[in-house]
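Supplementary Text 2. Reproducibility record for the structural model of the 265-residue chain.

All settings were left at their defaults, and a single model was retained for analysis rather than an ensemble. We include the record here because the model underlies the residue-level annotations in Supplementary Table 4.
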Amino acid sequence: MHRLAALLAAAALLAASPAVPQAQPSRTILVQAGQLLDRPGHAARGPSTIVIRDGKVVEVRSGHAGADLAEFAGAEVIDLRDRFVLPGLIDSHVHLTSDTGGVAAQLEQVQLSPAAKAYNALVNAHKTLAAGFTTVRNLGDRDGVTLALRDAVRAGKVVGPNIVDAGASISTTAGHMDAALGFRDDLRDALDRDDNLCDGADACPDGCLAKYGEVVEILPGSIKLKIKRDRVIPACKALLDELPVRDIDIEEVPIEDVIRQIFAR
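Retained model, structure tokens:
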């Protein structure tokens, strides 16, 4: 009886113990290509097989290897034997929130909400990926829509290309990213100009800090600020990286140093 009780107690303990996580089996995909362009400056290969394990290309083989081979048992096979295969393309200048231009783009600017632009960005991301572009560089997004889409793609929530996003833009007055550009002068004050204008040595540090830093206090010859680094664009990143400021720390930064660093390049 005592032995049975001990066995039952041991079984209860085992049942209550957390399960040991099991290693996930690797996933293998075989892409069978009719022709394959995989080396810049070289002629395309003939019949080839691209071996992908856990999302990474690990090998390119001549000929068409299949799941019938013991080493590839259970592999997924993508049959492109009648197709020309090449690496994903890169588009280094896109605006995913819109595919319009001219007057149509101006109308979108004042008619569409950030939510509507988010749907446009997702649709355009799908179009871009379907056209063979697996990486894009998005140049300018005042609403943070493309940054959110970038994170959603990387998290596997939606399908789209890898996005390198510039975040909100900094522009000169009447420059390419001035939100009031093209509208009547008397409408400028009514438009959301996003505080992104930067004209000269005195204004450009203010432009960077207004977009990416929370100014806490302005003192004679210096400022106290907090940097919001999740939205920093490349134009300001080099400056902010050199400042004695961290993600949530507040430091005093002499304004003359800000001006000197941003224009020293």
